[in-house]
What does this fold into?
Amino acid sequence: MNDRVLPEIDMSLCTGCRLCVERCPTHAVELSAEQRPVIVRPDDCAYCGLCEEMCPVGAISLAYEIVLDASGTD
Amino acid sequence: MSEGDPSAPYLSLAPAAQRALDAVCVTRRYESGQVVMLEGEADAPVFVVRRGTVRVYRTSLDGREQTLIRLGPGAAFNVPAAFMDPGAGGDRSSPAVAGARSGALAPASAAALTPVELALISRPDFCQTVIHSPDLALVVLRDLATKVHHLTDLTHDLGLLTVRARLASFLLSHGQAPAGAPPPGAHVRWTHHEIAAQIGTVREVVSRTMRTFVKDGTIKLERHRIVVLDREALQLEAES
It folds into this structure.
């Protein structure tokens, strides 16, 4: 499984408000020449979910696997 | 006749029934994300999934979605429309409701979650094929019975369980054993929005409830993984 899973940005919903760029704690996101957010430093993305939370139009989504911990109680 | 997998009833058709369906169907392929059927659409056919996964859902006026069911190869949707009288029943004060209840309008939307290949059969052709094939009729009955059971459970969960309980139940039922590989075609990763659509809430509530589960020590969040730490506690949440 690819370990470098990144947030997905739906450009059809994005309005270019820059909130994700301004709030990203690791500055992994920047605006492109077309004024749309791009994860330019994927290695810096902490997958914290703040961009998804901040986005006013729901254009950013983070996907998760759901795993049962091996040591959890049954 | 073998019943086969109840989630894939059209995979185990008797040869004659399969040939009868093949004779009246057309094949369509859709890309991931494409809408296959739109809620309210007139005269939508019966669809049988041959390849890929389809999500069937309803949408509210404000854009909120409720997933009704996810279907893989061997499953069918919009089957009841083939057997509903276009002129009967319904709420006459609302043409859309009357249309949906009469079978004339699609009661839900369907979208491809992955690239899909579907067999499309017109409603009259499907009905006629069923009439002339007792094997197919039995498959249709079993399929509809399974779906009634599923929707009964869904109605119960949405109407009688809290969001916390529904989320807990979702995490338990969709969690993968750490050493196990997911079955082919299984939906491996979920966004909070997708989870919200499954359990009947909105993304923000899923995120907020997840944070309380983290605080309780029931789950932990790793990079792109939700790890269920305490299944017993989550089970108690699911039953509360």
Notes: Residues 163-239 of chain B form a domain with the Arc Repressor Mutant, subunit A fold (CATH 1.10.10.10). Residues 27 and 119 of chain B are 5 Å apart (CA to CA). The mean pLDDT of chain B is 89.
